[in-house]
Amino acid sequence: MCRSIKTLRGAEPEASDEEIRAAALQFVRKVSGYRAPSQRNRPAFDDAVEDVTASVTRLLDRLETR
């Protein structure tokens, strides 16, 4: 996986929305193989980034830490 994606759980201070979105963007880039998608693929790429961002945000909100 992307080595540039850092662990966001337990970050101090708490991971920002920008950090979560940056991690989502890196993930979608890796999975899709696109650094910058074509105009034709841009909507699918952008939707995926938003979906992953929302999923990660929900995950971090729901995880319980000791």
Provide the residue-averaged pLDDT: 90
Are there runs of 5+ residues with pLDDT below 50, and where?
A: none
- The Rg value, from CA coordinates, equals 13 Å
Distance between the termini: 27 Å
Q: Percent helix among the residues?
A: 55-70%
- Secondary-structure element order, as H and E? HH
Main structural class: mainly alpha
What's the helix count? 2
- Dominant shape: elongated
- Proportion of beta-strand residues: under 5%
Sheet with the most strands? none
Based on DSSP secondary structure assignment, what is the total number of beta strands?
0
Describe the structure.
This protein has helices at about 15-30, 40-60. The protein is mostly helical and about 70 residues long. It has a domain at about 15-60. Helix 1 (about 15-30) packs across helix 2. The radius of gyration is 13 Å and the shape is elongated.
Write the layout of secondary structure elements.
Blueprint: H1 17-32, H2 42-62
Helix pairs in contact: 1-2
Descriptive tags:
66 residues; 2 helices; 0% strand
Summarize the entry for a quick read.
This protein is about 55% helix and about 0% strand.
